[in-house]
Amino acid sequence: MSSKSGPQKGAAESRNTFVEPGNPIPPAHLVAFNSPERLIDQHELEIRIGEGKTAIFDKLADPSSGLPRPIKHGRVNRWLLREVNDYIARRVAERDADLQVAA
């Protein structure tokens, strides 16, 4: 029997992890899950803001809603997580301001 000594080189180690100079967005496998520069899909957007597909597209049709515009990624829409987090923060601030006025 042959015994294996030392760690084996896995797929993650053999992957090229070089970030090109001048490229502002690193490859997807280098972007941390909660990185503000990560692009999220429609399903994750629905979960994060608590709205369904129809409500999201209704908000997109209304510029005063404040929902960030999607980035076209091929045939699908993607949203920048930073912009979605900012949208949620604005909604919370509006809610808190309304509570202070009512009190």
Describe the structure using short key phrases.
single chain, 103 residues, mainly alpha, Multidrug-efflux Transporter Regulator, Chain: A, Domain 2, 42% helix
Computed Rg: 20 Å
The CATH first-level class of the domain at 35-102 comes to Mainly Alpha
pLDDT averaged residue by residue: 80
Low-confidence stretches: 11-17
Element pattern in H and E: HEHHEEH
Assign the structural class, choosing from mainly alpha, mainly beta, alpha/beta, alpha+beta, or little secondary structure.
Answer: mainly alpha
Q: How are the strands of the biggest sheet laid out side by side?
A: 1-3-2
* Count of strand segments: 3
Distance between the termini: 77 Å
Instruction: Please report which band the strand proportion falls in: under 5%, 5-15%, 15-25%, 25-35%, 35-45% or over 45%.
Output: 5-15%
Which range best describes the helical content: under 10%, 10-25%, 25-40%, 40-55%, 55-70% or over 70%?
A: 40-55%
CATH architecture of the domain at 35-102: Orthogonal Bundle
Describe the structure.
With about 100 residues, this protein is mostly helical. It has a domain at about 35-100: Multidrug-efflux Transporter Regulator, Chain: A, Domain 2 (Orthogonal Bundle), CATH 1.10.1660. The protein has helices spanning about 10-15, 40-50, 55-60, 80-100; strands at about 40, 70-75, 75-80. A three-stranded antiparallel beta sheet has the order 1-3-2. A hairpin with a 2-residue loop joins β2 (about 70-75) and β3. It is globular, with a radius of gyration of 20 Å. The chain starts with 10 loop residues before the first helix and ends with a helix. The model is unreliable at about 10-15 (pLDDT under 50).
